[in-house]
Amino acid sequence: MAPFVTALSRTQMELPPPWASSSLGAVLATALLLLVTVLRRRRSSTSKYNLPPGPRPWPVTGNLHLIGSLPHRSLHALSARHGPLMSLRFGSVPVVVASSVDAARFVLRIHDAAFIDRPRMASGRYTAYDFSDIVWSPYGAYWRQARKLWQTKLFSARQLRSQEHVRVEELRGMLLHLHRGLTSPPPPAGRGAVVLKEHLLMLSLNVISRMALGRKYVGDGEDAAGSPVSPGEFRWMVDELFVLNGVLSVGDFFPWLRWLEPQGYIRRMKRLARMFDRFLEHVVDEHNERRRREGEEFVATDMVDLLLELADDPTLEVPIERDGVKGFVLVRQEGY
């Protein structure tokens, strides 16, 4: 009987199984192979860490099913059950949550060097010039240099004092605009009630634009002449940047689904990146032209000027490329 079994098994090996030619069989085989690969990776990666307690993750999705529409409340409820320092798994990514003062001190102060690195997520890749800014760049020589320049050059106490007049002028301009709107005839409907949200938003944009870019590229009037984007477009771009830097893309937690891109976030990020790059290329070109025109009499007056000077500094440990300059400026536009 043994030879018959051996012969039969050889025949089965030579002939394809009956479901191999069907599309359903191919899908099932691929899904099974994917599941086995994920489970093996999960076991191998989990065994490397001494993780704190946490809820048992599901295969493939991990603990994502426990996170509701208000993630902070979901995490609070889970921490009440599993402790102030707990481990979760979002897809194939292990996550440690610190939700108390002592746990935060343990992570941010005692073991800050172990937790200081940034995850390489889609937001940093597509909206921050491939992790070229200080927010998304991974911990290393480039990040340490960027942090030092941020503190000693770009936002030093001396630099902030030198631009105090910008903040004063824009605040006075906003107050004067509000005063004229309330006192000029005919009296507006609902006198005495002013919605400050739009006025404060434009105040912030104008201050940031003048401090970082040298002039109001995104305001109204002659100051914004020549800007490649309208004030409305720029406000939309800033809002979109905030939204896309806070979303959870499926590909960040399920790398094997990155090609599928079911949420559409990557398409939005690429579109936004093209729009910001067109604007920032215009800004950098204008500043380079002024540097060339003024020659030895050139004096840096804003953040772009300082960054372009630093980019020409041969003593930097890590050179700042043109994308790095634009990435730093983009962080400033976010209000950091």
Automatic annotation (TrEMBL):
Annotated keywords: Heme, Iron, Metal-binding, Oxidoreductase
Molecular function via GO: heme binding; iron ion binding; monooxygenase activity; oxidoreductase activity, acting on paired donors, with incorporation or reduction of molecular oxygen
Coiled-coil ranges (or none): none
One Pfam family hit: p450
InterPro entries tied to this protein: Cyt_P450, Cyt_P450_sf
Presence of the UniProt keyword Heme in the record: yes
UniProt family annotation: Belongs to the cytochrome P450 family.
Protein name: Cytochrome P450 71A1-like
Native source species: Panicum miliaceum
